[in-house]
Design a protein that fits this description.
By secondary structure, the chain is an all-alpha fold. The chain is built from 4 helices and no strands. The two termini are 29 Å apart.
Length: 135
């Protein structure tokens, strides 16, 4: 028997935090990509940020699995997270290959998708809490 779990009002779940971390890491990558044009420090920061972003993508997959398994919810977030990890893998390969004509647009797409995923998760949590409190 599956038990549906929800979060208390005003509380963030591991899934919320992991998507927020991923989105923040992608924003950091955009900033450091711009720094690459004017500073040698930008290259080091972008390299470090790429590792953090990839780790955040893996964390997002783990959070999606952990949110799905005990709660008995839809496995769809796992597909989103896995797809995002695939995009992150392609992004790393393009960056190592020095193909900015593909690397930069994919980075922009990834940031947009991450913001969308964050908004969906936060809106879903807000909707559940509003229903629970009769709003």
């Amino acid at each position: 028997m599956a038990v549906q779990t929800t979060t208390a009002p005003g509380r963030f779940t591991f899934l919320h935090v992991s998507i927020a971390l991923q989105t923040s890491a992608l924003l950091f990558q955009a900033v450091t990509a711009g720094m690459l044009l004017s500073s040698s420090l930008g290259a080091a920061l972008h390299d470090i940020g790429s590792r953090v972003m990839y780790g955040a993508s893996m964390l997002y997959v783990l959070a999606a699995i952990l949110a799905w398994r005990p709660g008995g919810g839809s496995p769809r977030p796992i597909l989103y997270a896995s797809g995002f990890l695939t995009l992150a893998s392609v992004q790393v390969v393009l960056g190592i290959a020095h193909l900015p004509s593909l690397h930069v647009p994919l980075g922009i797409l990834m940031f947009g998708l991450s913001v969308l995923a964050l908004c969906r998760v936060l809106a879903g949590a807000r909707g559940v809490n509003a229903l629970r409190h009769g709003r």
